[in-house]
Write a structure and sequence with these properties.
Blueprint (H helix, E strand, L loop, with lengths): L5 H10 L3 E6 L3 E6 L4 E5 L4 H5 L2 H4 L3 E3 L4 E4 L4 E4 H5 L18 E3 L1
Antiparallel strand pairs: 1-2, 2-3, 3-7, 4-5, 5-6
């Protein structure tokens, strides 16, 4: 059994997450949050980013007071909330692979 308010606290924590920095490698999107956490997801979860040139991938800006990231060249938006909840682009089929590379570090 969970303590009363635990889920509400978690939801508030997810909603309050703000991006400090975006880092993109050839296969991973990593978002560093202002509270010190970092979230990494496979770039394949976001096909438009995976297919884009490095220059277009690195042309990003924070939106919604840091609650999301926008890539104007790609017309792509990703929310921090979605990343924290493990959500990919709706066109990507996710599996429950035990070797999943999604990580949240503190």
């Amino acid at each position: 059994s969970s303590k009363p308010g635990t889920m509400q606290h978690l939801d508030d924590e997810i909603r309050s997450a703000r991006v400090r920095e975006v880092e993109i490698s050839n296969d991973t999107l990593t978002v560093h949050l202002k509270d010190g956490r970092s979230v990494s997801c496979p770039l394949l979860w976001y096909p438009s980013l995976a297919k884009a040139s490095p220059a277009k991938r690195h042309n990003d800006r924070l939106i919604g007071d840091g609650t999301g990231i926008h890539w104007p060249d790609l017309d792509e938006d990703i929310s921090v909330r979605g990343m924290l909840l493990g959500r990919s682009d709706p066109t990507v089929e996710q599996t429950t692979d035990p070797d999943d590379t999604t990580t949240v570090s503190t």
